[in-house]
C-alpha cells in the first residue's frame, strides 16, 4: 500500500515577480490593468487579466520551456499566484482540479493520474499546501479504496480501506497504518465478484462492437472478452430482453468482422454455427457445427426466430449462425428441449430481428458478401471474428439466478 503520498503533489508555482520589470518579456494588450498576453523569452505565456501589473482574475499560464515544459494552468490568479478555482494539468496528463491558495492546492479538489507510477489512481477531497489533508476518498487503479481522514499526505484519523479482494480495514489510522485494536474484516464469499458463466459472441464492426444474447450478459457485474490471450472488459451498450439480444462495445480492433445477410435464411438452407459450447471445459478452441433450417419459426411460433438441427449446447449462446458466404443469418440461442430429453430442438434469432435492434441503437453492419467462401477462408473468419465471453458477478447473485428455473445462463459447473 502506498503510504506516503506527499511527493505526488510537488508544484512549481513561483509565478511572482515574472510580470514586473522583465526587460525581455513582450505584452500584447493591457498587461497593467486589463486583459493581455505576456510572453517570456523561453516561450512561457500568460493569457488573462492583470491588475497593477500582476496576474489577477481569470487566466491561463502555459509552460513551453524549463522543468515545467508542457504544464498548463487555467483558473483564478491573485497577485501573480494561482488563487481560487482552477485546473493544473501536467505534461503527462495528470491533473488537479480544485481550489488554490497563494500558489498551492488548498481546499476541496480532485487529483487524477493518467501516467506515471500512480496511473489510474484518483483522489477527491480536501487539500492543504499541495498534500492530502482533511476528509477525502482515494481510489487505486487496482480497485482498492480508502474513505476517511488524511494528514500530511497519509491516511490519518478515522477511515475505512476496502481492498479489491474484499478485505475491509476500518478504524483509526496513524501515518498510513491502522492503529492496534481496530478491525480487519474479510468480505463474505457471497459478495465477492467471480467468473460465473460463459457464452459466445461475434464482432460486427472494426470499432469492437460485439453481438451476443441478452441472457449471456444478464446480471453481470462485468463482461470480459477473451482476445489473443487477454481478458478485456466490454461495456453493455444495449439489450433487447424480448428477443434475447445484446450489443457490447470493447476497445478491441478485430482483424475480421462478420457481415449480416440482407434476407433471412430459407427453409432447408444449410447453416454453420460457431462458438464455445460448454465453455472452456472441453477445450479453449472454437467449435463449429453444421445443419439446416428446419422451421421458420421458433419456440411457441415465435417468428423472430428459426429452428435448426445444428448441434447447440450451453456456451454456444450468442454465437454466430452463418451461411457459406460468411454472412450472419442468425444468433444462436441455447437449446430448450434437451432439458426434457428432446433432441435437435435448437433455435436462432433471425438476422432481420438483429438488424432492427442494431439500427434502433445506431449500429450499422457491413454489406453482405455476394459469393461463397472457401472452407479455409470461412474458417479464418470464424476464428478471428468469434469470441468467448465471461460473465462476472457476486456469488450471492449466482445463487439467486441459478434458483430461477427459467434462467438460461451457462453457469460454470462448480456453481450448479
List keywords for this structure.
416 residues, mainly beta, lipopolysaccharide transport protein A fold, Thrombin, subunit H, 15-stranded antiparallel β-sheet, six-stranded antiparallel barrel, 29 strands, disordered N terminus
Structure in words:
The structure is a single chain. It contains four helices and 29 strands. It is mostly beta strands. The strands form three sheets. The protein has a 15-stranded antiparallel sheet that branches. Strand 10 and strand 11 (145-151) form a beta hairpin. The relative contact order is 0.11.
* Assigned CATH class of the largest domain: Mainly Beta
Distance between the termini: 37 Å
How many runs of DSSP E, i.e. beta strands?
Answer: 29
What's the alpha carbon Rg, rounded to whole Å? 29 Å
Overall CATH architecture of the largest domain: Beta Barrel
CATH level 3 topology of the largest domain: Thrombin, subunit H
Topology of this structure?
Blueprint: E1 26-29, E2 34-39, E3 45-51, E4 54-62, E5 72-78, E6 81-89, E7 95-101, E8 104-112, E9 122-128, E10 131-139, E11 145-151, E12 154-162, E13 168-174, E14 177-178, E15 183-185, E16 193-203, E17 209-212, H1 214-217, E18 222-227, E19 230-240, E20 245-250, E21 259-260, E22 270-275, E23 287-295, E24 305-308, E25 320-322, E26 327-333, E27 346-350, H2 351-360, H3 375-385, E28 386-394, H4 395-402, E29 410-411
Parallel strand pairs: 21-26
Antiparallel strand pairs: 1-2, 2-3, 3-4, 4-5, 5-6, 6-7, 7-8, 8-9, 9-10, 10-11, 11-12, 12-13, 13-14, 13-15, 16-17, 16-28, 16-29, 17-20, 18-19, 18-28, 19-20, 22-23, 22-25, 23-24, 24-27, 25-26, 26-27
Amino acid at each position: 500500500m502506498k503510504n506516503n503520498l506527499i511527493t505526488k503533489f510537488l508544484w512549481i508555482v513561483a509565478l511572482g515577480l515574472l510580470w514586473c520589470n522583465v526587460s525581455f518579456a513582450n505584452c500584447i494588450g493591457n498587461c497593467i490593468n486589463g486583459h493581455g498576453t505576456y510572453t517570456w523569452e523561453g516561450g512561457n505565456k500568460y493569457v488573462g487579466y492583470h491588475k497593477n501589473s500582476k496576474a489577477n482574475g481569470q487566466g491561463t499560464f502555459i509552460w513551453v520551456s524549463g522543468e515545467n515544459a508542457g504544464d498548463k494552468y487555467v483558473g483564478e490568479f491573485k497577485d501573480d499566484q494561482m488563487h481560487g478555482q482552477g485546473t493544473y494539468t501536467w505534461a503527462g496528463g495528470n491533473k488537479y482540479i480544485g481550489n488554490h491558495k497563494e500558489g498551492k492546492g488548498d481546499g476541496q479538489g480532485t487529483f487524477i493520474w493518467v501516467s506515471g507510477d500512480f496511473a489510474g489512481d484518483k483522489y477527491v477531497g480536501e487539500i492543504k499546501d499541495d498534500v492530502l489533508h482533511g476528509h477525502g476518498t482515494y481510489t487505486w487503479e487496482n480497485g482498492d479504496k480508502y474513505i476517511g481522514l488524511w494528514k500530511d499526505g497519509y491516511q490519518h484519523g478515522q477511515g475505512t480501506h476496502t481492498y479489491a479482494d474484499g478485505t475491509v480495514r476500518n478504524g483509526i489510522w496513524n501515518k498510513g497504518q491502522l492503529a492496534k485494536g481496530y478491525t480487519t474484516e474479510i468480505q463474505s464469499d457471497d459478495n465477492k465478484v467471480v467468473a460465473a458463466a460463459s457464452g459466445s459472441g461475434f464482432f460486427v464492426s472494426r470499432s469492437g462492437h460485439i453481438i451476443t444474447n441478452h441472457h449471456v450478459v444478464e446480471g453481470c457485474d462485468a463482461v470480459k472478452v477473451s482476445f489473443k490471450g487477454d481478458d478485456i472488459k466490454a461495456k453493455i451498450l444495449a439489450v433487447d430482453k424480448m428477443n434475447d439480444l445484446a450489443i457490447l462495445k470493447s476497445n478491441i480492433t478485430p482483424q475480421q468482422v462478420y457481415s449480416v445477410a440482407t434476407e433471412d435464411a430459407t427453409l432447408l438452407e444449410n447453416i454453420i454455427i460457431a462458438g464455445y459450447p460448454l465453455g472452456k471445459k472441453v477445450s479453449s478452441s472454437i467449435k463449429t457445427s453444421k445443419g439446416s433450417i428446419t422451421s421458420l419459426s421458433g419456440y411457441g411460433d415465435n417468428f423472430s426466430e428459426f429452428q435448426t438441427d445444428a448441434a447447440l449446447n450451453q456456451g454456444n449462446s450468442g454465437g454466430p449462425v452463418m451461411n457459406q458466404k460468411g454472412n450472419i443469418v442468425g444468433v444462436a440461442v441455447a437449446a430448450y428441449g434437451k432439458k426434457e430429453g428432446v433432441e435437435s430442438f435448437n433455435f436462432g434469432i433471425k438476422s432481420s430481428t438483429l438488424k432492427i435492434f442494431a439500427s434502433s441503437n445506431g449500429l450499422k453492419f457491413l454489406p453482405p458478401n455476394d459469393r461463397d467462401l472457401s472452407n479455409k477462408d470461412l474458417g479464418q473468419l470464424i476464428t478471428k471474428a468469434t469470441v468467448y465471453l465471461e460473465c462476472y458477478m457476486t456469488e450471492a447473485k449466482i445463487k439467486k439466478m441459478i434458483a430461477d428455473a427459467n434462467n438460461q445462463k451457462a453457469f460454470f459447473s462448480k456453481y450448479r
